[in-house]
Amino acid sequence: MKPPYARTQSKLDLPDLELVLALHRGRNLAGAAERLGVDTSTVFRSIKRIEKELGELLFERSRQGYAATELGLELAGYAERIESQLEQAREAVLHTGSSPSGTLRITTTDSVMQSVLLPAMAKFALLYPEIELELVASNTLASLSQRDADIAIRATRQPPEHLVGVRLGTLQAAVYASRAYLEAHRHVPDYRDMDWIALDATLPDHPSQRWRRQHLPKVVPRYRMNSVLSVAGAVVHGMGVGVVPLAVFKDNPLVQIVDGPIAELETELWALAHPDTRHLQRMRVMFEFLRTSLGPFM
């Protein structure tokens, strides 16, 4: 089968690789255009030109966006390595003997953000005033390979092998209720018969969901929430009982544990990054800070 374009002598250069990488990361024309600071028509014309010069398709087009072919992935990999080495070279030239600087984008879940990460960030900002932080709370796992974030803080017992990172500590969870709710429901002797607050169908595989289905199959939640912090808020306000991480309710006088900590809900907290970025100065100092500073908040 003939290739989709007639092969000519390739003049592939660095801007072309940058465009391939941007389209791979952005997943569509608009995402690539935003990363490059150009319009979508420029991205479209440029990728068509590059493919014509190479005589090969670099992306498969579909309604879901642009998916890199095998060659597209290979070129994006070269571009990533060049990008990383260029950034390290800039650091070597500009920041030798100076304070770490630049932007760090960190993503984690809303509960870890509020209870574990944010309490420590003021200290980090004082230590490294030239580092700009972008903190993103999301229950959606960011793709570090696509550079959606520089660092992902994830609760997991098995961090992905293709990423590098450090173990930050252990997260525990328990079934909680507010003291006011328990006082008002003294006539209900078993917490399993109380009003349950649980996560909704958008998080079906959350550990608290699996645990409840396995150990309390007859429990039908009265209230459903789309985030752990919402479950915690409903518990505090006396709506019922629910599974909440201990870190979220640390030293909260309005609530108490009715069951737990539950061993099956215990998990590890990891800070993870793409291997190509681990040598950057700002990444090194953040990893060391996270490793040594988050323990008291878990």
Automatic annotation (TrEMBL):
A Pfam family per the record: LysR_substrate
Keywords of the record: DNA-binding, Transcription, Transcription regulation
Top-level taxon in the UniProt lineage: Bacteria
Domain HTH lysR-type residue range list: 12-69
Protein name as annotated: LysR family transcriptional regulator
Gene source species: Massilia hydrophila
Cited InterPro entries: LysR-type_TF_proteobact-type, LysR_HTH_N, LysR_subst-bd, WH-like_DNA-bd_sf, WH_DNA-bd_sf
Recorded family membership: Belongs to the LysR transcriptional regulatory family.
SUPFAM superfamilies assigned to the protein according to its UniProt record, in alphabetical order: Periplasmic binding protein-like II, Winged helix' DNA-binding domain
